[in-house]
Write a structure and sequence with these properties.
Strand 3 (about 140-145) and strand 4 (about 150-155) form a beta hairpin. About 45% of the residues lie in helices and about 15% in strands. The termini are far apart. The chain has helices spanning about 1-25, 50-70, 95-110, 115-125, 160-170, and strands at about 75-80, 85-90, 140-145, 150-155. About 35% of the residues are buried. By secondary structure, the protein is an alpha+beta fold. It has 2 domains: about 1-35; about 50-170, Haem-degrading domain (Beta-Lactamase), CATH 3.30.450. Helix 2 packs across helix 5 (about 160-170). The protein is elongated and about 90 Å long.
Length: about 180
């Protein structure tokens, strides 16, 4: 009988300790509820990229892709999201024509590299982004910024996301310095 009383007392203590621990453990805050002090990705829009500059960015990207042996599609859009220059390298997959433009469009409309969407979806599980118009969660879209103003974006597609991005970085380097 004494053993049963002791067992019941221990069980009661275990339950009480469990309740106390549950009350002490604060829930993890939802990162979406955090309000930043400053607006992220707030580069102001500028004038549209001129054709010659857009073509130079495409040429640099194509040259890098050729150097690496990758057949890609490269698109440069202006600050309003309109196509200015495009190249489809020989052998580049046809499905990636629209994807290159989409990556550039998302980068210019949302004023951030498309890698930001990819990372927030993969690392933070921010699935809500997939409900937003024109999002593409695949790297390879980079804003083009000159004198602190967004003048357009470059998008590359046809290889892996990291390959697309590597080529885009070279093309963007003709503008972003």
């Amino acid at each position: 009988m004494k053993a049963m009383v002791q067992l019941a007392a221990l069980a009661g203590l275990a339950v009480a300790a469990g309740v106390a621990c549950a009350q002490e453990a604060a829930p993890t805050p939802n990162p979406l509820d955090i309000i930043p002090d400053k607006m992220p990705f707030n580069t102001p829009y500028g004038p549209p990229i001129p054709l010659a500059r857009a073509q130079a960015a495409v040429a640099a990207a194509v040259s890098e892709a050729e150097r690496r042996g990758w057949a890609l599609n490269v698109a440069v859009l202006d600050s309003g999201g309109n196509l200015v220059a495009f190249a489809r390298m020989d052998g580049a997959q046809l499905g990636s024509i629209a994807v290159a433009e989409h990556k550039a469009r998302a980068a210019v409309k949302f004023r951030r590299p498309t890698k930001a969407f990819e990372e927030s979806l993969q690392k933070n599980d921010y699935k809500y982004q997939l409900t937003l118009d024109d999002i593409i969660a695949s790297r390879g879209g980079i804003p083009l910024v000159e004198s602190g103003k967004l003048i357009g974006a470059i998008g590359c597609s046809g290889a892996t996301g990291s390959q697309d991005e590597a080529v885009c970085v070279v093309g963007a380097g003709t503008i972003n310095r």
